[in-house]
Amino acid sequence: MLPRLSTLLHADLAVDLGTAATRVALPGEGVVLEEPSVVAVSRGANRLLSGGCAVGHLARQMLGRTPDSVTVVRPLAGGVITNFQLCEAMLRYFLRKARPLRFGLRPRLLMAAPGCLTPVEKHAIYTSAHRAGAGQVLLIGVAQAAALGLRMPVAEPVANMLIDIGAGATEVAVLSLGGVVSQQSCHTGGDQMDQAIVDHLRRSHGLRVGLAAAEQLRIDLGSAWPVDDSRVTEVRGLDIANGLPRRMEINAAQVRQALTEPLEKIVETIRGALDGCSPDLVSDLVDRGVMLCGGGALLAGLDRWITHRTGLPAQVAPEPQTAVVQGTLICLEHLDTWRNFVESSDAAF
Q: Which terminus of the chain, N or C, has fewer Cβ atoms within 10 Å?
């Protein structure tokens, strides 16, 4: 009875505040919320539509279909808050939807954040979360959280390499003995892959398409390694020459060609992380390989391409998109064990 009462009264939440999606998990319940990190606002007024409920799935449905008086905004880019007011409103909505306040308690949040954030960027997360209704805010690095979520032996004296490919950034980290040995990041992820497809279609075929159409092409045909180049789909857009609608067929090989530049940037980031490792740790990685997570890890053939380019065995995590929030929840449930992974704005923590 007492443990059940404690669970009802205690207000702890694990939050993965991502550029493309936000996920919230509760101790004992798992992931209870997963919604796009977007809001719809009145242009100029910066006011949320639908009585403050035009957030997440509802706002995503409006993307690319709004009149001039309405705009759909992502409050984060590359894991960094770019619009404080809208991020605060979005986070407040998600927290209330995940767990309504009980008896006026302000929840304690453990939030996953990129390890490359500056002190100013971390302060922005603390401030936004407090204003959204949090009582105490703790941060854990995305790499550490993902490693916990994937049950990697990060406390042992062996190298564990993790590559998290998100919407706006890629983070590569090597962990050993409960700490980060080497870490590199770049502002390249799913968003940059979609933009590369848009640029390729405009440059090579004179066709202008939106980012939503490019994202669907990446999902349907995108690959980093030849998988099945016979796959073809129709894409529709605006002909740049005459300004009229046009449709054309595009195959998997063309989409893969468009993704060359962002994929090369990810390889350079991996090499940068390896440069910070000792020969013994690199030797471990040759045997143990690397783990891929994040939504970008779902790109077909990415594991084979990374193995080909780096010589390291690579595999995609079983549930790459939820690895970070699952690890954040594990850390929250065993905070005393993983306290060295966590930092707080509260000096008394």
A: N
